[in-house]
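Q: Can someone sanity-check these two? First one:
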Amino acid sequence: MRFRLHAFGLHLLGSAIALTLVLGAMWLGWYRWPGWYLASALHIVGIVVLVDLVLGPALTLIVANPGKRRAELARDISIIVAVQLTALVYGGVTLWGGRPLYYTFSVDRLELVQASDLKSDDIAAGRRENPTLAPYWDSLPRWIWAPLPENPEEAERIAAGAVFGGTDVIQMPRYFRPWQQGLPELRKRLVKVDEMRYFSPAEKRTLESRIRQLGLPTDQANTMIMWGGSRRVLAVFDSRTLQVRALIRGN
């Protein structure tokens, strides 16, 4: 039994180190709050953790029979490690493809833009026409303003296309502007938390309670919805400086 436990402990330690390096890098670089929540990353992380940190070491505990020939034991553990590496690569590639790149303000809301939301043609156009704010392989999440273009025909075309599932302006880096430039327009769009239409009455009560716990006012027009797919959080701003003070879940 000591041999099995020793093999289990070594396998668990190695798996934990590999998992920490991959997931830690993703979290530190791209998936800090609210990125992991809005991007629905936890189900991918859960699969990887289940395979790499639970099933792998558990199977090693089962197959690590001291009576086995070394070649046979090495083969069994190699198969287990190969499955673990496959799961780790799958998780890493999936998280990389869905990594948050932008938190955008456009029209009347904030939205998460993931790498998978951007088409190659739009990325190329952004790099040509707006290289400072265009995405690159090493880009970290940025807060930007994504206004509709000044050309009314182009703006109407984009807005109409987005309604029917086409590319929205938040997926067109060539139109992105620095965050600070959008603050005057953002100020006009802020609402009081009890006027927020995207949350139920019960969620609004929860949000108001959490805002008060943070020492922030609930009777000012200082909030805006932030979307990430079907998930949402409430962004609370400083009414004077327009700095984001909190990003709060309603449940």
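And here is the second, same format, sequence then tokens:
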Amino acid sequence: MAKKHNQIMNFFTLISALLFLEFGLSSCQKVISVDLNQSSPQIVIEGLVNDQGGIDSVVINMTGDYFTPSLYFQPITNAMVIISDNVGDSDTLKEAAVNGTYYSLSPAGVPGRTYSLKVVTNGKEYDAVSSMPQKVEIDSFYAQLSTGLFGESGYDFYVMFKDPPEPGDYYRIIPHVNSIPEDSISGGRGGIFITDDEFTNGRQSYL
């Protein structure tokens, strides 16, 4: 009986210890109120210059309100948008039927050149400068059969390339299926991949 009594006492000691711990944890709780101040809408400018011979474009709109989330962002119309490069070429973009979108049909961008963007709207001027890096050629591409956690099978796709010796390179790979960009490829890696050369600078790399 004494042994049983000790077990019961130990059990109640454990319960009381847990209750004390729970009380201690609950007494540390504190309600934190985050003050998300409302701010005036800000202009957002997104520019694209590529070397594929496609349409260079600039999209201009305003930010939305955190307290009234929406998929609609007010476009900026009737803006003056100019893209120029460091060899003297310049083009004033035309506004598309989609408000807030401006496009150029000028020749494709050239790797190694520096491009400047100038936007004038509502009496304010916005400027940006960016250089188009040299192309990094793909060495090889292969697929490897893989099996998922639930037994489903598919393929992992890998792109091999040699990173240039200069640091600061960034890479983006967008998979396509039948010429259509895919956010998810069943059984494969899928999605849009963005990475840099922080740990692979100057080395053979893959995505």
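A (reply): Looked at the second one. The chain is about 10% helix and 40% strand. The radius of gyration is 28 Å.
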